[in-house]
Amino acid sequence: GVLGEWGWWLGLVFGAGPLLCLAAWHAMDAWYRAAFFLKHGSQRRLPPGHMGLPFLGETLSLIWHFKLARRPDEFIAAKRRAHGGAGAGLYRTHLFGSPAVIACSPAANKFVLQSPDNFGARWPVPELVGITSVVNVEGAAHARLRGFITAAINRPSSLRTIAAVMQPRIMVALASWADMGTIVAATEIKNVTFANICKMFISMEPSPLTEKIDKLFRDLVAGLRSFPLDFPGTTFHSARKCRRKLNAIFREELEARKKVGRECDDLMGGLMHMEDEQGRKLRDEEVVDNIVSLVIAGYESTASAIMWATYHLAKSPVALAKLREENMAVSKSKGASSMITHDDLPNMKYTAKVVEETIRMANISPMLHRVANRDVDHNGYTIPAGWSVLVWVRSLHTDPGNYENPLTFNPDRWDEPAKPGTYLVFGGGYRICAGNMLARLQLTIMLHHLSIGYEWELLNPDAEIDYVPNPRPADGAVMSFRKLST
């Protein structure tokens, strides 16, 4: 009867369903291997690994490890177990809608990052980070933009000016947190970092408009590592809409500056006046593309790193005591001035170790996106032309073979330099992050003012960690925060 019919259907779903998935799983990998064999014969080999399910690839496995199990390092560890050790440090997979090779050893990562002829930059969806922005363009255009950005925000002379501009806002923010007594560190740190970046990059003071821009950036960043499904309700669809709205806001700012001939000594003003060898200026969309991308790069990752510094220091009283001692001495040597300058940095050796250890453990960008421009051979394997290449830097920073007790916060490990090729927090090769010194400076300034004037405790020290879209405690690092009792 009816029960028998239901039983038949349930048997089909629970019996045949998994079998069909398993068949599809094997068929997908077999299809890619067969296509590779037909093109290259038996002389060349794909890296070990598996292509996963049709269309989805191994995206579900990635989501499982990063979002549900909250064990992101297990994603690569499982590959190492399944496919025979670290080997060449290359694995085939299918992620973000594209066949891909993961590079996850110092040698393989160095090979990819330092071979610009073989590998170009390619984000899964270039428009989200800006098609004509410095993170996507190649060749002379990339070199020119990168040179300008480095001069504007990464040279010692620029960093001197930036240090002076940033500190008053940071000092006011910290005092206001102490008045609140309890803060969500991730939110408050992001607010002050975003306000400083807006001031430096686009000469905007906090307003309803910058609040709107901040929310748009938040939703855009969430889409950078989402699966590229573009229909209403998906994270990716929302990110594309946010990118278009941000482009419109910055284009309006650009038009307003041109109309009134407003000269601003900021990053946007510099991009507007940049010229190539023929005296050609950037097109409006190039200025907009780059400024949107630079604001993302300038504040999201730095705010996250500062939040992790407060988190780890709250759990590491010995490290915090050493940090306080060094910064109190620097502060005393300044006399009446409460602000540090770029020239104080050489005297802040322990602070520098805290900065490097924080950035290593934060792993804000677990991977870097590249594409194979041609068939490339490495260590006996072929990376096929057109495939994505994911340089998995997170695996370097959390590997016990590279760092002793890698998940323990230990600034003193930086008494010795990292093993060559194992520290790629800012990428590597000719595309190393153009703002790496600015990020370190922002962290150093924040640590200085925190350590000389305040104390804090995590209210949920055992809160779970979310890893998508960026690593952070699930509660945003809620903490009690007060002035240091002298």
TrEMBL record:
Gene3D superfamilies: Cytochrome P450
Cofactor(s) named in the record: heme
Residues holding heme: 433
Pathway(s) it belongs to: Plant hormone biosynthesis; Hormone biosynthesis
A GO term, aspect molecular function: monooxygenase activity
Record key words, sorted: Heme, Iron, Membrane, Metal-binding, Monooxygenase, Oxidoreductase, Transmembrane, Transmembrane helix
Transmembrane portions of the chain: 6-28
Biological processes annotated in GO: brassinosteroid biosynthetic process; brassinosteroid homeostasis; sterol metabolic process
UniProt record similarity statement: Belongs to the cytochrome P450 family.
The protein's name in its UniProt record: Ent-kaurenoic acid oxidase
Organism: Aegilops tauschii subsp. strangulata
